[in-house]
Each structure stands twice: as C-alpha cells, then as structure tokens.
Amino acid sequence: MTQASLLRQITDYANRADPYPLYKELRRTPVLRDEDGPYLVSTYWEIQSLLHDPRTSSDARNLATTGGYGATPLEETSLPPSFIRLDPPEHDRLRRMAMRSFGPPHTPRRIHDMRDALHAIVTDLIDGLGNTDRIDLVEQFSYPFPVTVICRLLGVPREDEAHFRTWADIIAASLDPVPGEDPTERDRTTQQARNELGMYLAGLVEERRRKPGEDMLSELVTGKGPDGTMTTMEVLSTSVLLLIAGHETTVNLITNGMLTLMRHPEVLQRLRNEPGLAVPLVEELLRYEPPVQLIPQRTTIADIEVSGVTIPKGASLWLVLASGNRDPERFTDPDRFDPDRKDIQHLGFGSGIHACFGAPLARLEAQIALTELARRLDNPRLLEDPPPYRQSAVLRGPRHLHFACDGIRP
C-alpha cells in the first residue's frame, strides 16, 4: 500500500463501513502528503495543535492548491459564507453574536429549557415507529428528530414545519449524492430548495423584526451587543448553518450511537437500567464513532512545521479527527468502546475557535434520544450489519439502519 493510495482508500465508499484500520495505517505517517496536494494530519496531539494554530485558515480564498476525492463540504449554500468559513476578526464577531442567542452566558437556560420539548418529540417519534419487524431508524427517527428541533429553536411556525423539512431533506441529500444520479437535475432541485428556503427565512426574519418572539431567530434579528446587530444576510447564513451542520451531524451521532449499542447489547441494557449513563456514553460515542470524521477545509497561511514536516503556505490541510480519536498515544485501548472511560477529551466537536457551537444541543439531543430508545425498544436487533452507509467520507453514518424488536414499551 502506497501512502498516496491511503487517501483514495479512506474516501473510497468500499471502506466506509470500517475506515479505522486505514486510519491506523495513516497514523504511521502523522503528516502525509497526498500526490494531488492535500496534507493529511492523523495523530491526536498534532490535530489538536493545528485546531488552535492561528496560522491555519478556514477561508477558502487562502487556498493555493486544490485536491480531494469527493470530500463533501459540511456547508454549501448560495448565501455569503457563515462564520465557520471565515477567519478572525470577522469569524469572531459573527460567532459572538450567534452565541448570544444560543447559550451561556447571555441565554444560559435556552438549551436546558428545551429538555421537555425534546423529550416530547422523541416520544412522538417512537410512538409512531409502527411495524416492529422492520424499522429504519434513520428515516423514522434520527432524520426527522433534529430538523424538528431546529424548527422549534428558530421559531418556525408548526404549520410550516413540513415545508421546512422538505427543503432540509433536499439540501441534505445534495451533501450525499447517489452514484448514477443525474447531477444536473440534482443541482437544479437543490438550488430551487435553497432559494425557497432562503426566501422563507427572509420573510420570517422580517416578521420577527416587526414582532419579536422568544425564539432564537428573534434574538439574532433584534439582539444588540458590543458587536452590533446581524444583517439580514448574516442572520440567514447563520440559520442555514444551524440547519445543515446541526442537522446532519446529529443524525449521524444518534444513528452511529444506536448501531454501536446494538453491537454492544450489554451496554444497551446498562443504559436501560441506568439512564445517567447517557452522559458519559455520548462522550465516548463522540470519540469512538464521531459524526464528522475529518475536516478537509483548512488552509495554511504560513509555513508550519508538524512532526518534522513543513506544510507550505497555501496548502490544503485535512485534519482526520476520527483517526486522532483512536490514537493509542492519547487514549488507552482506543479501539474499545468503553462508556466508563475517564479520559475522554475527544475531537468529536473539533476544538479551538471553530469548536462546534451547537455542541450543547447535540449532546442533549443524543442523550435523550438514546436513553428513550434503550428504555422503550424491547430486544432491538440489527437486520443487517454493516448497514448501508452514506457516500460522504466527511459526514460518516449509515444511510439506513434497519432493525427489529419484540415490541415498544410505553
């Protein structure tokens, strides 16, 4: 196996179900230069350092080279770039304004106070699973749950949620293209959905300007702080970021979580009996099966030496988070799923200035979802293992997760 072939294999769909042996091989060369340009960094401490290094950029305009094997971007819209695509100081200004509306210290109870609403959504979805001989967790639970949550968070009226979900479904599908699908038609449909979503959100923004509510969109529109107020386009970019990045990653976190639990029935039983286990269990899942496997959008804005290798200015930099999470130099017995693991400073939500700003909500969604699924599903068992995976090597998770159970408890 040549070093150059490793990247092709990691991004090859044939290895989507289990890329971890490839990551192990990749870590033999902590900084690997692919023949087409990208530098891959695969070891924990080196990734952590680069995530905090101001000489790395998230702005694609700083990229001097191109190269990649169909890595799906986490966010791609026709709107101006959101703050995850920007560098300081503009990144910092927009992120601070978004965080005012999302959590501590300005709205410290926003996520906590959503607990009852999240539980109600989960209950309704489990009640509606239907025939227990064959359930698709993705289609019937993991997929609709986060988008409903985002609708409630933004303040989308209940009667409009179905339209919002339709647009979200189309945009999400564009991030995970089906082989053989007509790209022209897909792009046309996706662009139409983005335009319709943008027009809908723009109308909602104007409505909230006239009559603010208790929702996050109202606070984004009317919030005033040291950084001023977001423009309409900035509000739209931030809202779409929350929809796409927040929805896609949470779907994978929950689905990967249930897949792991059904592969470890003794842990599933523990969660059923010990609901408090959900908190450390979700952290271990974020290490063991992270929903975002790698970050392919970083660029160096100066020469950087990493593990004896000089990565030149303008290079494409791929940070393989999932590999760092399995680095034996950082975690003991890293290929073992251990919800009792004490040392759990994983890279599942990134780190540094671009650490996932939706992490508190994603954690709570996963904790409630997995706890209730464990409690209510009687003897759940996989119908196919491995399941079919999505195409994306970045946003890795099952496209479907078919299982059966003996019944659904009240």
TrEMBL record:
InterPro entries: Cyt_P450, Cyt_P450_B, Cyt_P450_CS, Cyt_P450_sf. Residues 56-81 are annotated as: Disordered. Keywords: Heme, Iron, Metal-binding, Monooxygenase, Oxidoreductase. This is Cytochrome P450. CDD domains: CYP164-like. It comes from the Bacteria. Belongs to the cytochrome P450 family. Transmembrane segments: none annotated.
